């Protein structure tokens, strides 16, 4: 049993977390979505038995993902249902959360059958009665978030920043899951807005 510091919603995934996540909206237990994720503090090994080494600090099996960030933490994602975080003693809590809500969240979504894209997405004008989505994919620092912010000023709704979640399971359409309640902007972009 974990000591829940908060219940959060990220995309359509409920997170029962021992780590306070001020970047995310708190929700009531009654609003929890099916198949929630548990985030807990604990010991995480430096190695994952039977895993493929993706790089010297990243290992994966069909059901687990281990990431070691020197000076910050070790993270273990299991079956798209649990994240164990082992922060280093002098780790900056903001860095621990940044990796958790970035790369680790992407691994979690992948394990849950979602396709995470490094993209921003906004809702487009309805066509034939159906709401559309425009997604912008590019390398870091190429202006995805700035473009989304400019479009938001013109009335479009921002659905995702940095990680755009695609649900490929519906047979007749592809769904974008609104995921991040923030835009990460460089200071000069923010000042220009």
**Overall tally of domains:** 2
Report on the biggest sheet. Answer: 8 strands, mixed
**Annotation, overall tally of beta strands:** 13
- The tally of helices reads 3
Q: Strand fraction band?
A: 35-45%
Unreliable runs: none
Which geometry do the CA atoms define?
globular
Task: Provide the helix percentage.
Answer: 10-25%
> Which structural category do the helix and sheet elements fall into?
alpha+beta
Strand order of the largest sheet: 1-2-3-8-7-6-5-4
Order of helices and strands: EEEEEEEEHEEHEEEH
Can you give keywords for this protein?
alpha+beta, globular, 5-stranded antiparallel β-sheet, 193 residues, 13 strands, 8-stranded mixed β-sheet
Question: Could you outline the blueprint of secondary structure elements for this entry?
Answer:
Blueprint lengths: L5 E5 L2 E5 L19 E5 L10 E4 L2 E3 L3 E6 L3 E6 L3 E6 L5 H19 L3 E13 L2 E8 L6 H10 L4 E3 L2 E5 L7 E3 L9 H6 L1
Parallel strand pairs: 2-3, 3-8
Antiparallel strand pairs: 1-2, 4-5, 5-6, 6-7, 7-8, 9-10, 9-11, 9-12, 12-13
Structure description:
The protein contains three helices and 13 strands; from the N terminus they run ββββββββαββαβββα. With 193 residues, it is α+β, with helices and mostly antiparallel strands. It has two domains: 6-111, no CATH class; 115-192, no CATH class. It has an eight-stranded mixed β-sheet, covered by helices on one side. Strands 9, 10, 11, 12 and 13 form a five-stranded antiparallel β-sheet that branches. The chain is globular. The termini are far apart. 27% of the residues are buried.
């Amino acid at each position: 049993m974990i000591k829940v510091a908060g219940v959060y919603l990220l995309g359509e995934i409920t997170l029962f977390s021992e780590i306070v996540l001020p970047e995310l909206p708190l929700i009531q237990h009654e609003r929890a979505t099916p198949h929630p994720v548990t985030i807990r503090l604990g010991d995480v090994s430096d190695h994952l038995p039977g895993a493929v080494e993706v790089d010297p600090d990243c290992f994966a099996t069909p059901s687990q993902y281990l990431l070691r960030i020197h000076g910050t933490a070790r993270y273990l994602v299991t079956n798209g249902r649990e994240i164990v975080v082992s922060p280093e003693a002098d780790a900056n809590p903001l860095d621990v959360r940044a990796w958790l809500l970035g790369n680790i969240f992407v691994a979690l979504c992948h394990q849950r059958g979602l396709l995470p894209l490094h993209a921003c997405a906004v809702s487009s004008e309805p066509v034939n009665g159906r709401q559309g989505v425009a997604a912008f994919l590019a390398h870091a620092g190429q202006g995805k978030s700035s473009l989304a912010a400019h479009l938001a000023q013109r009335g479009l709704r921002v659905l995702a920043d940095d990680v755009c979640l695609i649900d490929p399971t519906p047979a007749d359409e592809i769904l974008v899951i609104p995921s991040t309640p923030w835009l990460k902007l460089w200071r000069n972009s923010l000042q220009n807005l």
